Structures are given as structure tokens and as C-alpha cells.
Amino acid sequence: MRKFLISTVSLLSVASPAAAQEENSITVTATGTRIEVEDTGQAVTVIGEDEILAVQGPDLTRVLERVPGLVFSRNGGLGSFTGVRLRGAEAEQVLVVVDGVRVADPAAPSGGFDFGNLLSANLEKIEVLRGSNSTIWGSDAVGGVLVASTRAEGGLLGQAEYGANETFSGAVSGGISDPDTGFLGIGGSYLASDGFSAAARGTEADGFEQWALDGHGRYYLSDRFEVFARVRHAEGELDIDGFPAPAFALADTLETQDTRQTFASAGAVYDAGPLFLTAAYSLSDTARDNRDDSGATTFASDGRADRVSLRGEWRPIGPLLVNFGAENEWSRYETLFDARGETGIFGAYAQAGIEWRGISGHIGARYDNHEDFGDEVSFGADASYAVAPGWRLRASVGEGFKAPTLFQLLSDFGNESLQPENSTSFDLGLAYGERGEALYGAVTLYRRDTEDQIGFVSCFGISDGICTNRPFGTYDNFARTRAQGLEVEASARVAQSVELGAVYTLTDAEDRATGLDLPRRPRHAATLFADWTVLPALALGADLRIVSDSFDDAGNAVRLDGYEVLTLRAAFDASERVQITGRVENVWDEDYQTAAGYATRGRAAFVGARLKL
After folding, report:
1. Which of 29, 149, 497, 568 would staple 533 via disulfide (CB 3.0–4.6 Å)?
2. What value, to the nearest 5°, has the Cα angle with vertex 168 and ends 162 and 169?
């Protein structure tokens, strides 16, 4: 076991394949500070830059399909609302962190993050923890935690591609670094696509355009102390289809949605060996404007969260360690129809751990105080044991909670008596090797029970009780859900030039009150992938995504058929610095939907190039 006390914002420059593999075995999702994946009993998947680039293209969901327990739904093409679910949890029950900033939108009805606004361009690393972990992360970490980091490496990387639906995407990032001074980097990306009709029955194409800029700097004041700052700003315009009169069914419309996002953080890191501390201020701001075909605004929202935090790790003696932290968040929102509302939450946690020979374990607790609903306490524990050379037994139990959103509390549909959603998750797994090695395999059993889940209550024809002064409906804590299943991962380098991999998930997710399946949770989901280095300069690859039937609605009346989507990839090294790429997505031209009524892209081809200096 190796321990690295390096700030989550002080990312290591990857100078060799060995260094890249080492960095890909590190995660912050388990304890809030950097820890090796083998030293936690929690289920964690880390995808590094080389794998992200090998998958090709700006569509982040194609990368995330390699994570067990993860499925997604999308309302159309690139840029459309995209919800990611972990182990049968709701999309808004997944905590998302980008470059150290929590990026959920406080103005969204359920307070989640729209992955349609995050492209894979310039992403260097993705970490996904599956299971409840509010002990470390507080609110929202019910289904799991996803951490995405943009590229922070010296040198220059540029890439561009063009293909189906007049789609162009380009990205560039670069930085300069000095081991005695610090690092300064900047990156940018742009995507424009004519798209296709979001409505499956439509004919009018719905396009998407987005540009994003990010910057990262850190300065070493001494060998123990550094300061840092990061910022990311993105703006996009998306054509959307709506529900026009008189049918009020999903159909072609000329509506658009403009989205502006700013994520930023600044702080300091102290690393004295046994004691590691990082303190930061961060902000997340998401603003949206929906417009009709005349350009008139039909809906607008702005959600912002400001947070101050302190995280640390202390190693008092030998194999013992203590992770600790505290944070305070102030969030606010306003919409075209709702006056400004705001709230705040304070949280603090402590977690004791041991890393001794083949044993690693942690146990901790967290206390949160919300301005509106009061106190919340969360517990968590995990253990990892090397039962034999290469083999590791893992187990974890965690509690999660999700605070009611400002929209659920204060909007015209709001209910100020709402309590937080609560979950308890368990998993037990056995793993051989590490992801990315010549031979790797893992099997994990999991279960999560959620109580007091918040849902929408229709008030049609009801004017008393919870529906008083809420003629169009309101929110209430009434749902109880359970998700349980099996995750299997395997990868092998079957020859010097051939690598094979597979991910499979069995999910049984149900509403405990009705016994019905939770919507958009396919029972079976699998990804098979292969890479073949035909020649030193030529690599071929394939990805096959297989998803079973599911239901689109809570009443299980609308079925979503299963599908199989094949992608073929190729990459040719024209020189040491230039690579030509190409791929064909949906080779079989599969006609399928991940959200009822919304189309997905058919067969599509792309060609591109990369330059690395």
C-alpha cells in the first residue's frame, strides 16, 4: 500500500505510462483526500486520460458506459438533458464534482446536474464511487459520487473532429510548470452540431452549440505550502422540442435553451507529511433561459451555491489515520415565476482509519445542520482485506441523505415541511488485480434502501390538506425505494497487442409502496470493449453497449425497448506528435430510446486529428 498526500487540485503531471497507471489507482471519492483504490472497501472506478482519448469524441456518456452500475437517459442529441443514475438511484441523487466544485444546480426542481452540459473534451480523469457516502460528502451522495477533473498538465494537447449532422468539435489545453514555482494552465473547447430532431416523430433538426474555457494555477510558497485557483465557464445554446397545442404531445418546436455555467475555486494546501490540510472557497452558478420561436423568454432560472471548506488527513502514528473536515454552503435560486429564495447548510465529519499490512478500514460519522429542516447525522464504514496475493475482499456500509431543493421548498409547488431523503447502502465484493493491469476482475453485490424520498403530488380536484393553496400540485416525502443487484467487471491483455474488457450490471430497483419497477432502470446493462494494436502506429477498437427493456414511467405503463449499439474506432499515429482518429457510432443503425418519445442518433461517422507537444 502506498499513500500520497498531495492536494486534489495539485494534479500530478503524467510523464510515463507507469505514472499514468499509478495516478489512475488514486481516488478522492472515498475519503475526501487522495487514497489508493485498493485501500478502500468502497466500490470505485477510475478512468484516466488515455482511456478517455481512446473512446474518442465529446460525448461523455460513451466513456461513462464503462462504469458498472451506471446507466443514463437523454432527451435527444448532444447537449440535451442527460441524467446519470448509479445503482438504481435517481439522477439527482448522484453528487457531481468538477475540478473540486460541487456543480448541482440549486434552481433545478430536483437539484441535480445535467450531464448534457459536460463534454469529455479536456477531461483528464473521471472517478466514480458507487454507494451512499454522505459521511464524507454530505447532501446528495445517495447513489454515489462522480468526480471529473480537467487536464492540468504541462505541454500542449489539441484535438478536432468532424462528422455526422455537421458536427464539429475541437479542444485545446496547455500549461507550463516548474517544480520549484508552480503551474499555470488554460484550456478551451468548442462544439457545434446541426443535430437531429429531439422528438422521435419530428423532422426538424435540433442543434447544439457550446464553448467552454477553463484555467488552473497554483503557486508553491514553500515545500509544504501552496495556493491555487481554478475556474471554468461554459455557454451553450440548445434547440429543444416541446409540447405544443392542441395535442400537447412531444413534437417539433422552434424553442431554444441558453445555459451559462461558472464553476470556480481558490484556496491553499498545507502538506507536512503526517498532517495534510486543504482549505478552499468555491462557487457554482448555473443560469438558463428558455425562449420560444419569437425569441420571447418563456422560462428563466439562476441557481448559485457558495461554499467554504476545510479537509484534512492526520497520520498520528504508524498505520493509523484520521480524515476530517467541515464546510458551510449558502445556496440561492430564482426563476421567472419564483422570487429569490435561499438557504444554508453546515457540516462536519471525522473518520478513523487503519492501513496495516493487507488490511485497510475506515469508520466515521458526519453531522449536518440545515437552516430549514435541522440536524442530520450520517455514518459509514468500509474494509478491504488482501485474502491472497492479488485478491482483495471489500465491504462497505454507508448512509446518504439529500436535502430538499430550494425549488421543492420555496417555489409555487413548494412544501417547507419537507425532510431530507435518507438511504443506507451495503456492498460486498471480491477483486483480483487493479483496473488497467494485464488481468483484472471484480464481482460486487449491493443493496440500497431509501426512505422519505421526495416526489411530486398531484392536487387535481383536491384543495385541502397538503394541497391547500397548491392547486397544481406540491412535493412530499412519501416514496420508499429499494435497489439491489450485482456488478461484474473484467479485463485482460490476452496478447501483447490485444486487450478485452467487459462490464455487466444486474439491477433490481423497485418502489416499495407499489412493488413496481423504478422508471428508466434497465434490469441488465453491459458494455463489451476491445482494443487491438495492429501495427505500432495503428490501433483498432470496438465498444458494444447492451441494455435490456425498462419502463419510462412510475406506473410501468410505457415500455422502453432494450437495445444494442456497436461503435468501431481507429487511431493512426501519423508521427510522434500527430494522430488521426476515426469511428463509426451505432454501426447497426439501431432505433432506440432512453427516454420515451425522444430520439437517439442513428449510424454516424467521424474523423479527427490530435496534436500533442
Report:
1. 497
2. 105
**Does the pLDDT of residue 609 top 90, yes or no?**
yes
**Distance in angstroms (rounded) separating the CA atoms of residues 430 and 41:** 10
Average pLDDT over residues 449-474: 86
For residue 601, what is its C-alpha cell?
Answer: 442518433
What pLDDT is recorded for position 412? 85
DSSP 537: T
Rounded to an integer, what is the distance from CA 531 to the centroid of its chain?
A: 25
Q: Which residue has the cell 466514480?
A: 128
pLDDT at 2 over 70: no
Residue tagged 460528502 (cell numbers):
137
How many Å apart are CA 457 and CA 469, to the nearest integer? 13
Residue 146's pLDDT band, with cuts at 50, 70 and 90, is: very high
Strand pairing class (94-98; 144-150): parallel
| Distance, CA of 41 to CA of 383 (rounded, Å) | 4
Kind and range of the H or E run holding 136: helix 134-137
Instruction: Give pLDDT, residue 9.
Output: 37
Q: What DSSP line would sit under 57-87, residue for residue?
A: SS-HHHHHTTSTTEEEEESSSTTS-EEEEET
> What residue type is assigned to position 521 of the chain?
R
CA distance 449 to 376: 17
Residue type, 491: S
For the whole model, what pTM was predicted?
0.94
Give 347's pLDDT tier (boundaries 50, 70, 90).
very high
Q: CA nearest 140: which of 457, 370, 468?
A: 370
- Residues 563-576 as b/e (b if ≥16 CB within 10 A, e otherwise) read bebbbebbbbeeee
Mean pLDDT of 510-533: 95
Peptide bond before residue 389 is cis, with ω within 30 degrees of 0: no
Whether the CB-CB separation of 109 and 405 falls below 8 Å is answered with yes
Radius of gyration, CA atoms only, the chain: 23
> By the 8 A CB rule, do 187 and 230 touch?
no
Give the whole-angstrom CA distance, residue 460 versus residue 49: 51
Element containing residue 406 per DSSP (H, E): helix 406-410
Backbone angles phi, psi at 51, to 5 degrees: -70, -40
CB 369 within 8 A of CB 329: no
Q: What is the DSSP letter of 50?
A: H
Q: Which residues pair with 487 in a beta bridge?
A: 444, 505
Residues 259, 203: Cα–Cα separation, whole Å? 24
Beta strand segments in 199-340, E: 206-220, 225-242, 251-271, 275-291, 297-314, 320-335
Point out which residues pair with 187 in neighbouring strands. Answer: 173, 214
pLDDT tier at 459 (50, 70, 90 boundaries)?
confident
Please identify which residue in the block is written with the cell numbers 510515463.
16
Which residues fall within 8 angstroms of residue 31, CB to CB, at 6 or more apart? Answer: 40, 136, 313, 323, 351, 353, 362
